Amino acid sequence: MGSGRQTFQHRSLSVKLWPPSHSTRLMLVERMTKNLTTPSIFSRKCGLLSNDEAEEDAKKMEELAFAAADQHYKKEPDGDGSSAVQIYAKESSRLMLEVIKRGPKVNGELADKATDLRGTVFDISGGRRAFIEAEEAKELLRPLGEAGNSYAKICFSNRSFGLDAANVAAPILSTIKDQLTDVDLSDFIAGRPESEALDVMNIFSSVLEGCHLRYLNLSNNALGEKGVRAFGALLKSQNSLQELYLMNDGISGEAARAVSELIPSTEKLKVLHFHNNMTGDEGAFAISEIVKRSCSLEDFRCSSTRVGADGGLALAEALKRCAHLKKLDLRDNMFGVEAGVALSKAISQFTDLTEFYLSYLSLEDEGTEALANALKHSAPSLEVLEMAGNDITAKGTASLAACIASKQFLTKLNLAENELKDEGAILIANALGEGHGQLNEVDMSTNAIRRAGGRHLAQVVVKKPGFKLLNINGNFISDEGIDEVKEIFKGSLDMLGPLDENDPEGEDDEEEEDEDEEENAEHEKELESKLKDLKINQ
């Protein structure tokens, strides 16, 4: 909560000269695909697109947005390109919203909707990010007060409510509270002084108390303990929540304890997101108590929450009760080896797991091996595995490679920012060599990989039928090695990420810095000879 009053304009866009690079265009397609396949207030009404349909639509939308922006750019007098980039972004957003509202197709035709979307979802989050005053609130919220409306889902995100606007909203909301199922109040007090923001939250909490909600989003409100308790009346009255989002809310240890104390029942909770908070170990203890009571949990996110070893141990123990998990995201915490080993003991419960995010947890080889050995015998349908930035070396790669070899439904693998080197890279390449027909993305960037490792990875993934992106940037691949990789991807360079940050002169503690090109080639041949027929125990 801010201490001063201000008006919010569009968030600034990082502008580059037109046209965007090929990798930038691919990135936009990937982001749109992810947005189209991520549950939202619209998808709960219109349905969620499949990955294949979302990707197809995303490519078409990007092409249309690019064409519109490019046409503008050609007419732009100064040729700067900045306005073309803005058009590119706006058109992409507009087209994506249309597809989200359209929903998935059935047998090539639009899915039949029992009722009009506009009659059940009320969303004011579009447009500029700004304060909303009383007069505007009266006009904007008027449809909610109309007799006979069937609004069940409301989204007030992106507009900052002050006391006057909150007092306008309260009596209107009281008339429809019994029909509400989904409430999104994320980012709805931005820039308000703390005292006013707390009063606004108390007003909304009181008027919505007793709603039988299945979805509640209070993210991006810098709540802290005071804010959590300001929503106390609403939280205490919830016995049927299925989705709860408290991301980027300044959830400290005290605030996490308040959440655990206030919510009476989480038996039906399927989605719980605590991303980007300052929870720490004390907060992790409180979150663990919530998790223990949430046996139906399918999607748990506790990433970037400053949780250390003790908090990691508590979460690992609590997760043993979550046999229905499909998505687990613990990225960017300070678990360390001990918590990683503890988490491995819970993995046997995760038979339905499809996405596992374990990057930047300081797992090292020991923690990685424990997790890989456990995961090998669980989660048979795993699709996404991320373990970037964990100081994994070639020593810890054998167990990891055996695990990966057993995951035949894997679509995305991220092992970036480790220390795998050529030996580890070739082990991973061999693990991916047989099967893995759904694999579409591999990130092995910044791993001290040289020519042999890069070539092996390229030779394996290029053969996958639906493969989209190999990232081996930031390694020690020679210019000759880069040429070889490009030759392997000849005719499909769009599947190869940028290679401009490779350092052919990169230092390797296990090799002399000044060895000449001929010795390098001999080293690579020897390594290939040792590893090309290496089998992975499954």
UniProtKB/TrEMBL annotation:
Q: Which Pfam families match?
A: LRR_6 (PF13516), WPP (PF13943)
InterPro entries associated with the record = Leu-rich_rpt, LRR_dom_sf, RanGAP1/2, WPP_dom, WPP_sf
Per the record, the major location class is cytoplasm
Q: Where is the composition biased (Acidic residues)?
A: 500-521
Residues forming the WPP domain are 14-107
Molecular function terms from GO: GTPase activator activity
Q: GO terms for CC?
A: cytoplasm; nucleus
Compartments, as annotated in UniProt: Cytoplasm; Nucleus
Looking up Gene3D superfamilies in the UniProt record yields:
Ribonuclease Inhibitor, WPP domain
Q: Where is the composition biased (Basic and acidic residues)?
A: 522-538
Q: SMART domains, per this entry? A: LRR_RI (SM00368)
The protein's name is WPP domain-containing protein
Which species? Gossypium anomalum
What taxonomic lineage is listed for the species of origin? Answer: Eukaryota, Viridiplantae, Streptophyta, Embryophyta, Tracheophyta
